[in-house]
Design a protein that fits this description.
The protein is mainly alpha-helical. The chain is 47% helix and 8% strand.
Length: 613
């Protein structure tokens, strides 16, 4: 259909060539005529007229409709960026499915890659979450002597306004208090992919999902480099970090390292590398998850984290409702309270407890959610979470395979028995989080209940019942919800929307559920959910100038989700150059699994509800 359209247009305007050279000033004229809301994009909200592109060859190209006009704007901008005189005509009328996938493969991944080198410091040091930095800091483990020497030489350039700081082996509370006003980037030796937008660093669980997309697109070595950075973090920073900034040193992220090892090694086997990576995974398992505050007396795990003060990376005013009464009690401003607490000059048990639960939320990756609300308080550290324990079960199963040591399988069976005892709701056939402080199972049904299915905890009969129960509650027009609306009511959630809750849907939940459905043979449900997710992404990109954002409202099938931190990936002019890390991966992986007949329907933008049964 799209090829016939191109041919028709070429014939009608008499420009029978593959490329054209637009006349000078055509992008400005296009925006003037078609961008009615003046946001430097062309979308369905503009309802633009047709536009006749003038070419240096004397011929003209007629372009109609917001989608083709937005593509024309993007191609003109790309030509300007790349210093090209010509644009490809086919790209203006390119099918949206092909265009999104090609853009991810050819541009988005490249534009999301970072590497900490002397030549890239200006790019990697930038942190929009801390916008008022007068100086930039690069922290390097003191035992990495070669890296320290290399970057100290680079720091001599006054234009960088940076300092290189050796990071001691012992990262205790006193050290973290000493750098409370000097947060900076943590060194990693290998290239990595960042999520995009305000997230200009390597993140823990994001990297696993991004790597699945990289592997699909033939970028196995980049996925391996991400795993190598995780190994470096375990060896030098004590854990796989939330992200490689100093304010993330106090918490980890959902553990996916063994899954990443297996995915990379399956794509490109390397015995020596696999053994090295496996040793790091065992170290992480033993030292991060199976001792200290993250392991409870029940024998199952929770998210936790260390007390390094009030997180500085949040949006302005994020904690004001909590901090205001505490500051009033101490007769000081909120800003002074934060400074005094972070520097260890003030102790407050109430604030300490609130922040302990907040760190647990952030370590879970689900920041923020009403999922762990109890009596109008967020109590994340009181819950043994389904996702974390399913991930650790998979570590144990994977390590049995990677090491050949059957004792890992025994650990997995022990964990499975505990999960079934404390987290499995047999009446609903669903796993939910368990409050180990007050001994009750949460009524909150989350998409994380797919994690045990992804990890293979249930047998075939149990899994089919659980899948039916979950899909019936979480399926929406655009894919899977983070949770159903009834769950928020069950915990008396506040009126203010939190981004990890209904009606939002997130890429990692979709990808986890897809694998679970595939492994249990639920092909029809799998195809339906993949199609819904990809249709939503494709339709939004088609209608809104190529937008591929961080998250979606899967009830309305819309990227207009601005809870808390807004929606990364929606704020751009002319053309998006990044998409968003795990969204890119979900699109590529989902598209690769979609049957051909459904891909054809997707290319024609057939709504899911109009598909033939």
């Amino acid at each position: 259909m799209f090829r016939l359209l191109i041919l028709f247009l070429l014939i009608t305007v008499g420009c029978a060539q593959k490329t054209i050279r637009p006349a000078r000033g055509e992008m400005t004229r296009l925006l003037k005529e078609a961008d009615s809301d003046h946001d430097d994009k062309i979308t369905v909200l503009d309802r633009p007229p047709s536009f006749v592109l003038k070419c240096d060859c004397g011929k003209k190209l007629e372009v109609n409709g917001p989608y083709a006009l937005s593509n024309l704007l993007q191609e003109l901008k790309l030509a300007s960026i790349e210093n090209r005189k010509e644009i490809e005509i086919a790209r203006v009328f390119e099918n949206p499915v092909t265009r999104i996938s090609r853009s991810i493969r050819e541009r988005y991944w490249n534009n999301l890659v970072r590497q900490v080198t002397p030549a890239s410091l200006k790019q990697v040091l930038q942190d929009s979450k801390l916008p008022n930095q007068k100086e930039f800091y690069l922290y390097i483990p003191e035992k990495d002597v070669f890296a320290l020497q290399s970057f100290k030489a680079a720091a001599a350039d006054p234009a960088l306004r940076m300092k290189v700081v050796p990071l001691p082996d012992k990262l205790d509370l006193n050290f973290m208090r000493s750098i409370a006003d000097r947060h900076g980037l943590l060194y990693l030796p290998q290239p990595y992919v960042v999520p995009g937008g305000r997230f200009n660093e390597m993140y823990g669980w994001d990297s696993y999902f991004e790597s699945l997309g990289l592997i699909h697109d033939g970028r196995v070595e980049l996925a391996r480099a991400m795993a190598d950075n995780f190994i470096y973090e375990i060896e030098n920073y004590g854990k796989i970090l939330n992200g490689n900034r100093t304010y993330y040193l106090n918490r980890s992220q959902p553990p996916f390292l063994t899954s990443l090892i297996l995915a990379v090694d399956e794509a490109q086997p390397n015995k020596a590398w696999r053994e090295k990576a496996t040793r790091a995974a065992i170290q992480e398992y033993n030292e991060v998850w199976m001792k200290g505050d993250r392991l409870t007396k029940i024998g199952l795990n929770r998210y936790y984290g260390s007390d390094f003060g009030v997180p500085p990376e949040v949006e302005p005013g994020h904690f004001d409702d909590i901090l205001k009464p505490i500051a009033a009690r101490h007769k000081m401003t909120i800003a002074k309270l934060v400074d005094q607490y972070n520097e260890g000059k003030l102790e407050d048990d109430q604030l300490k407890e609130i922040l302990a639960h907040d760190r647990a939320v952030r370590e879970s990756g689900h920041d923020t959610t009403y999922r762990w609300k109890v009596r109008n308080e967020d109590r994340a550290a009181d819950f043994l979470t389904v996702d974390l324990n399913a991930l650790l079960y998979k570590y144990e199963v994977d390590l049995a395979v990677l090491t050949g040591d059957s004792s890992w399988k025994t650990r997995a069976e022990t964990r499975k028995a505990l999960m079934m005892k404390y987290m499995w709701d047999d009446s609903q056939k669903i796993f939910t989080d368990y409050n180990w402080r007050e001994n009750f199972r949460s009524p909150f049904v989350s998409a994380t209940a797919f994690y045990p299915l992804w990890a293979g905890v249930l047998d075939q009969e149990q899994a089919k019942k659980s899948i039916h129960a979950l899909v019936s509650r979480l399926e929406a027009p655009g894919g899977l919800l983070s949770n159903d609306e009834a769950s928020q009511k069950s915990v008396n959630a506040g009126k203010k929307q939190r981004q990890w809750d209904y009606p939002s849907g997130w890429a990692p939940h979709q990808m986890i559920a897809w694998r679970a459905l595939r492994s249990y043979g639920e092909t029809e449900t799998l195809n339906r959910l993949i199609y819904k997710w990809l249709y939503m992404i494709t339709k939004n990109a088609h209608d809104y100038n190529g937008t591929v954002p961080e998250k979606y409202d899967v009830v309305k099938r819309s990227h207009a989700v601005f809870a808390e931190y807004g929606n990364v990936g929606t704020d751009f002019a002319y053309i998006t150059q990044e998409g968003f890390g795990w969204m890119n991966a979900a699109y590529q992986v989902g598209l690769s699994e979609l049957p051909n007949e459904l891909r054809i329907s997707l290319e024609q933008l057939v709504p899911p509800e109009q598909l033939k049964k």
